[in-house]
Amino acid sequence: MATFNAAPTHRNFIAGEWRDPLTGEYLESLNPAHQDETVGLFPRSGKEDVDAAVNAALEAYPRWRDTPAPRRAEILFRAGQLLLENKDAFAQDMTREMGKVLLETRGDVQEAIDMTFFMAGEGRRLYGVTTPSELPNKLCLTFRVPIGVAGLITPWNFPMAIPSWKSIPALICGNCVVLKPAEDAPLSSVNFVNALTEAGVPAGVVNLVMGEGAECGAPLVAHPATRIVSFTGSTAVGREVGAEAARQLKHCNLELGGKNAIIVLDDANLELALEGCLWAAFGTTGQRCTAASRIIVQKGVYGKFLERLTERAGELRVGDGLDPRTQMGPVVNRQQLDTIASYVEIGKQEGAKLRLGGRRMTGGDLAQGLFFAPTIFAEVTPNMRIAQEEIFGPVVAVMPCDGLEQALEFANGVAYGLSSAIYTADVNRAMRAARELQTGIAYVNAPTIGAEVHLPFGGTKNTGNGHRESGLATLDVYSEWKTVYVDYSGALQRAQIDTEEL
User: Fold this and answer.
1) Per-residue pLDDT averaged across 450-458, rounded?
2) Of 45, 143, 155, 492, which has the fewest beta carbons less than 10 angstroms from its beta carbon?
């Protein structure tokens, strides 16, 4: 519960107004780099708040649906410009609330800018298909139609980028939105919604309710008027979201866990591979669904690569993400810190060799923060839990392999299938890996992170339910196809009838 102090108090945004939660309760958001600093107080919303937000979206929907898509796009272009103008301020807020370094939070805001501009361009496209009919004097065409109210539940690790991935495609298609951000990073969604509102999005079209998953997220998923549910988070929660959405036959997009691998073959540019693995393993403190938590290295270069990786990771500067010298920030909250520490103990018990880190960092300027040292395990085997389960922290398992065949076997031998990468100078092996890696995203001579907004983002297996974020593929989540037949023959024409029998 909140401890009230001088920190600003924020409100839900419903029907164009900032409103206190009907629960009367607030959650305290702490800076993970300085746990003695309160970023703000945010609503601990309940079902009644969700109901009010959904009802506001329902009321606004007919007018927004009937607004021509190019007009919707003009508003979104203005929103993108406002995000651009406030990029540095929004990045500072993001670092304070969830910890990652300014270089990354600027990139997070930039993704929201890119997504907004990209999707706004679809306002003059949203292409359908025209096709010949099997009958004379008849026209066949298709076009996209919106669905209604979208309930969007977003995580804390990309607290502006992912809300934009979901909200902007929903809006350009003509839907209204109720956004529920993670309770660890709600301020970035406040800033995002402010930009949309200032740009001219009408009252009720975008609504923001903040709170915990069970009290706020679950009612949003279960509400009969939310016809689209998009969720990014853990696989366990995603199964529950998908089951509830299926019961009501809702559109449902699930973006869930990952246990991503980078393969480094003997012929790889080792310096390039080293840089990529450091960035993929320890960027965002390993708190990315696309983070490389496994590095599979061919035995011919395994020893040399492991030595250099350990040396370089040990040199990473850990600290407050607002300090431009910092290369890796804190873990988001105490629960996640404890989870990471527990997996380190599991790795030791399983027989993996701890080469670096494995401990909380508390000295000096780090004393008030939730910092965990960059951690490397060596001699990891594929069946170990640290090689199978998502840790979501700065912990990487380095695994030796005989060659490409075994590397592919190891890489594919997990329940997830989001992102993968291979470093090799052999184009034939690179193309084979790109084909055979069982992931939705594959990189050649680049790390497992770095998706671009104009391409589909998503995974296979337990990573999701087959839909994609970003790119044009995401439009299929937020719209439905309508097929129209126009017969101008002036006579009854019967399709799918064998005319030879007439």
Assistant:
1) 96
2) 492
